[in-house]
Design brief:
Oligomer: heterodimer
Shape of chain B: flat
Shape of chain A: globular
Low-confidence stretches of chain B: none
Number of strands of chain B: 2
CATH class of chain A: Mainly Alpha
CATH architecture of chain A: Orthogonal Bundle
Helix content of chain A: 55-70%
Structural class of chain B: mainly alpha
Distance between the termini of chain B: 46 Å
Distance between the termini of chain A: 38 Å
Number of helices of chain B: 9
Order of helices and strands of chain B: HHHHHEEHHHH
Order of helices and strands of chain A: HHEEHHHHHH
Strand content of chain A: under 5%
Helix content of chain B: over 70%
Radius of gyration of chain A: 17 Å
Number of domains of chain B: 1
């Protein structure tokens, strides 16, 4: 899903940069004075972990490989604002260390992965966890992670499709190509995110409780929320 | 590397790439002496200039400018060209149909049954322009890291006033990337050594295994983060009182370098053949 340099037109680059930077500024404002200092090393280590996880490729159909995005798990574990910042750090490092995702496409990649990829799963998780019950939370995590991945890919397809004549394929080709391919990856993302968050809640709920916004969502073993 | 399990190959190549970046920063050359802010603005201006042209000649001259900077900065040219050519090659796969679907003067045509295949001159030009632009942009991003390393990047982010939370977390993340990659690799190798795989494609069993690995890594990360935090506090570190990682130290020679790069780009953009 990482869009390289040279694929996007100037108006799309400018539009996505403005949107991504505005959102990043809101994220910094939201977390300012609200972050437990202990969360920063944890955030850095989690970012490093998901950076590594993105390098693990798995063969899928047609001889191609796929990797997990990690954005849904970061959003749920760290909260939406810190999750977005964390995902942005991953994208900046990937862009400059591996040329994976371009400098001019950084705004678009942030929009697709650090904003849509984090916010959509978090919104679903948050909505379903308010309903209470382990099953509802599980459904929220799975659907959120799946949709986060697919919608991020669809956004990438739109950005590419609207970049004509720089990128020669139109929206009608780019959007289905990205959406269909990522719906397979999205299923894997949903499953793994669900398993990871469930295990975290079970084994280390303190990871979630470090985030003040999320601490109320940690379910007890019988599925009733701790208020 | 091809004998390594597929799940580990990406990690191995990532580690290799990171080690190369660390090594190349220690070289000394023209770009290494330039102030990080000026250097990165100069290099990014090449990317911006590449977006304003559709001329293959102009894009090729921009790439030549990059090659000259690589040579004068003592970055090994062969490795630089190898590193930067992977993404354009992948991009080439994406644009392969373009010469076939772009109307124009046919360069080659053949008929397979009732299907007429034709490669147009205009389509080939589009592909060449696209690949050259991708190569220039990838070349710039690679050069920024090979010359400045992670410290140069953090200084640049500090200079453009990114909040301390971002720059400090980025620095801390980078320090733990090697450890995270190594730890993930060990766990995946241990898992592969213990299991016998009948199918190589992604399946539910594979996903369950990956989730287990990730959860185990997550618990380790959590335990380590507490130790890291306590160690940092014991050394008197405070996130609130960390200074900006950039001090303006641009000299006249730095400004001259920026002016020279921008002038060359303006000349390149105005070349008409």
């Amino acid at each position: 899903m990482h869009i390289p340099d040279g694929f996007l037109s100037l108006p799309i680059i400018a539009f996505t940069y403005v949107l991504a930077i505005s959102f990043l500024a809101i994220s910094f404002r939201k977390v300012k004075g609200n972050v437990d200092e202990r969360l920063i090393p944890l955030m850095a280590l989690l970012t490093a972990l998901f950076f590594a996880v993105q390098m693990i490729n798995y063969p899928i159909i047609g001889g191609t490989t796929a990797h997990l995005l990690g954005a849904p798990a970061l959003g749920i574990l760290l909260g939406p604002w810190l999750g977005s910042i964390s995902m942005t750090i991953i994208l900046v490092l990937q862009c400059f260390l591996f040329a994976d995702g371009g400098v001019t496409a950084l705004g678009a990649n942030m929009l697709n992965m650090a904003i849509i990829g984090v916010m959509v799963p978090y919104a679903f998780y948050s909505f379903f966890s308010k309903k209470g019950g382990k099953k509802a939370i599980g459904i929220g995590i799975f659907i959120g992670a799946f949709l986060g991945d697919v919608l991020g890919a669809v956004a990438a397809g739109l950005e590419l499709g609207l970049s004509a004549p720089v990128f020669q394929y139109g929206v009608s080709i780019a959007v289905p190509a990205m959406g269909i391919h990522h719906s397979v990856i999205g299923l894997a993302e949903g499953f793994v995110t669900l398993a990871v968050v469930y295990s975290t809640i079970k084994i280390r709920p303190s990871i979630l409780s470090l985030n003040r916004g999320l601490s109320v969502m940690i379910p007890s073993t019988d599925g009733v929320r701790n208020e | 590397m091809r004998y390594a399990p597929i799940s580990v190959r990406g990690l191995l190549s990532g580690l290799e790439s990171l080690l190369y970046v660390e090594e190349s920063v220690s070289h000394s050359g023209i770009l290494h002496k330039i102030d990080p802010l000026i250097r990165n603005i100069s290099l990014v201006s090449i990317i911006i200039a590449s977006l304003f042209t559709r001329s293959i000649l102009a894009l090729s001259l921009m790439f030549l400018l990059l090659v000259a900077l690589v040579v004068f900065s003592n970055v090994p040219l062969r490795i630089y060209l190898l590193k930067t050519s992977i993404i354009p090659l992948v991009s080439l796969v994406i644009v392969i149909p373009i010469p076939f679907i772009t109307p124009g003067v046919p360069l080659w045509s053949a008929s397979i049954g009732s299907l007429l295949l034709s490669i147009s001159y205009e389509g080939m030009l589009r592909v060449a322009e696209f690949i050259m632009r991708v190569w220039v942009c990838v070349g710039v991003a690679t050069l920024i890291t090979l010359v400045g390393g992670i410290n140069g990047l953090v200084s640049f982010l500090g200079a453009i006033r990114m909040p301390g939370l971002f720059t400090q977390t980025l620095s801390l993340t980078y320090r733990y990337i090697f450890l995270s990659i190594n730890e993930s690799m060990r766990m995946l190798l241990a898992r592969d050594a213990r299991t016998f795989k009948k199918r190589s494609r992604l399946n539910l069993e594979e996903l369950r295994g990956l989730s287990g690995v990730m959860t185990a890594l997550l618990v380790r990360v959590h335990e380590r983060s507490d130790r890291v935090y306590l160690a940092m506090r014991a050394r008197g570190f405070s996130f609130a009182s960390t200074p900006c990682p950039y001090n303006w130290r641009a000299k006249p020679s730095d400004i001259s370098f920026l002016v020279m790069v921008c002038s060359l780009l303006l000349i390149i953009l105005n070349i008409r053949v």
